[in-house]
């Protein structure tokens, strides 16, 4: 398949993941707060680990040589972080301190994982083998 067909979607996903990954280190507290409480250990460890993962996957997506692997890893990452997104939505919906608009955004964000996963799989399919 064509490397060109995967380039645009791959670079968009890479930019999204690089930005999110960097934010895990610049402002880790919001990410700490959405780590599911059932996980053992410190939330900050998961925040940093997921930030590293996002930066690594962004790199694989940005490079044509590793783009196919990057698509696979991105799909897996989007699935892996879904529980944190659910935790955020549940916490925000239960909170009296969160605005109605923010609650709506948190809930609406959950189904947005689907197009992220499908876009990552599209990158995988269309990347050069």
Summed over residues and divided by their number, the pLDDT gives a mean of 92
Sheet with the most strands, sense and barrel status: none
Number of domains: 1
Question: Helix share of residues?
Answer: over 70%
Order of helices and strands: HHHHHHH
Total DSSP helices:
7
Q: Which structural class matches the secondary elements?
A: mainly alpha
Low-confidence stretches: none
Strand content is under 5%
Task: Give the overall silhouette.
Answer: globular
Number of strands: 0
- Compute the CA-based radius of gyration: 16 Å
Distance between the terminal alpha carbons, to the nearest Å?
7 Å
Offer a concise description of the structure.
Helix content is 78%, strand content 0%. With 129 residues, it is mainly alpha-helical.
Written account of the structure:
78% of the residues lie in helices and 0% in strands. It is mostly helical. The chain has one domain (3-126). It starts with a helix and ends with a helix. The model has no long low-confidence stretch (mean pLDDT 92).
